[in-house]
């Protein structure tokens, strides 16, 4: 009993209207086989509600049973409708097999630390997932991995699967997103002091040695700044592009310019999908119509215009963004006005990539 045998069996199930088999239509995902328990599980995904879904499901179950005659196989099929799906865009090189079924890989960068890069990355991942996309986030901030804390997964220890002959890490799944962070491999009180090649290798492992499976978006939370580590990761990973996060403050913007120049350099040459301005203004609860531009007004907007880059979003300073990050329950999970900025960022990003 193995995954290949199950997939082979499912190829005999033909969608009666589309006249193609369910495997080649991309309707089968995440096949899991447990030979000891004689159990097979997989997802059966319909691109839109389908009147034939229950008969197709029955046929899939029968096809798997027929493939293992005489054995009392347990077949678990999770049926779901996913109307949105990004087509695979990544061109792979050797060593990048983990990314074979990933639509877009997007680096989240910042010129400086503390501007909210990780906050934006985590909330954008959740907002994309809530919009129906399959999302993963690799926290490659070797110096200050904050994804475990922001997602309340600090106590998780990812498992390693070596059934393919290569050690691959299984990501942590929570809030509808697959998370991987270098922080899962270090104790909270243990400083991460990797430098140079060791840091860039550890960081690449967080992306290339993970069982991502099928994803529409894989976000990579890069360390702040620009340097050799960044150059090595952005060169070796097939990015669709980068998002640069900054506050509107002049000192932060000076470093953004360095970041833009790095992505645009001849050596790297990856598109910048847009800028995100964080901590754009503050509105006190008792004065809901007032905006205070604490870090300056529209700094990123002007910068975006100067460099011909879209401004993907402006996110105000909101106490609950900070609190929810500290509590491990990101604000984008909640249906409230404060999370609207991230939902709109997700919509704009998708529009940028699909038009
Ligand atoms: P970076 O990844 O750039 O170092 P973080 O995402 O860790 O920055 O954010 C730094 C701090 O600022 C965190 O405590 C975070 O909760 C807070 N923060 C980020 N963005 C906002 C915001 N829009 N409103 C309030 N607090 C924010």
Please tag this protein with its features.
355 residues; GMP Synthetase, Chain A, domain 3; Rossmann fold; eight-stranded mixed sheet; 24% strand
What does this protein structure show overall?
There is one protein chain. The chain is an alpha/beta fold and 355 residues long. Helix content is 31%, strand content 24%. It has ten helices and 15 strands. β8 and β9 form a beta hairpin. Bound molecules: adenosine-5'-diphosphate. Adenosine-5'-diphosphate (ADP) binds next to α3, β14, β15 and α9.
CA gyration radius, whole angstroms: 22 Å
Backbone structural class: alpha/beta
| Fourth-level CATH superfamily of the largest domain | P-loop containing nucleotide triphosphate hydrolases
Major sheet: 8 strands, mixed
User: How many distinct helices?
Assistant: 10
What count of domains describes the coordinates? 2
Helix content: 25-40%
The set of bound ligands, ions and cofactors reads: adenosine-5'-diphosphate
So, CATH architecture of the largest domain?
3-Layer(aba) Sandwich
- Estimate the mean pLDDT confidence: 88
């Amino acid at each position: 009993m193995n995954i290949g045998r199950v997939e082979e069996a499912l190829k005999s199930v033909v969608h009666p209207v589309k006249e193609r088999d369910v495997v080649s239509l991309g309707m089968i995902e995440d096949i899991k086989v447990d030979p000891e328990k004689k159990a097979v599980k997989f997802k059966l995904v319909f691109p839109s509600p389908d009147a034939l879904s229950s008969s197709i499901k029955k046929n899939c179950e029968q096809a798997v049973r027929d493939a293992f005659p005489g054995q009392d196989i347990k077949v678990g099929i999770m049926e779901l409708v996913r109307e949105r799906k990004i087509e695979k865009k990544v061109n792979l090189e050797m060593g990048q097999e983990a990314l074979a079924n990933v639509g877009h890989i997007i680096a989240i960068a910042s010129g400086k630390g503390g501007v909210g890069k990780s906050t934006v990355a985590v909330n954008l991942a959740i907002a994309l997932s809530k919009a129906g996309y399959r999302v993963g986030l690799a926290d490659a901030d070797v110096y200050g991995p904050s994804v475990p804390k922001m997602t309340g997964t600090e106590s998780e220890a990812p498992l390693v699967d070596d059934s393919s002959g290569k050690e691959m890490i299984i990501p942590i799944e929570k809030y509808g997103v697959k998370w991987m962070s270098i922080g899962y491999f270090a104790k909270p009180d243990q400083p991460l002091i990797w430098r140079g090649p060791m840091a860039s290798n550890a960081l690449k492992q967080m992306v290339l040695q993970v069982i991502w499976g099928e994803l529409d978006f894989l976000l990579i939370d890069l360390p702040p700044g620009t340097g050799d580590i960044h150059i090595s990761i952005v060169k070796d990973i097939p990015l669709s592009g980068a998002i640069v996060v900054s506050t509107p403050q002049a000192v932060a913007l000076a470093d953004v310019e360095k970041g833009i120049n790095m992505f645009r350099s001849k050596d790297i040459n990856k598109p910048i999908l847009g800028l995100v301005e964080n901590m754009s203004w503050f509105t006190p609860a008792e004065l809901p119509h007032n905006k205070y531009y604490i870090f300056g007004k529209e700094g990123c907007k002007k910068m975006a215009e100067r460099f011909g880059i879209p401004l993907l979003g402006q996110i105000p300073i909101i106490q609950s963004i900070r609190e929810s990050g500290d509590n491990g329950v990101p604000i984008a999970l909640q249906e409230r006005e404060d999370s609207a900025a991230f939902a709109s960022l997700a919509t704009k990003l998708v529009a940028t990539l699909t038009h």
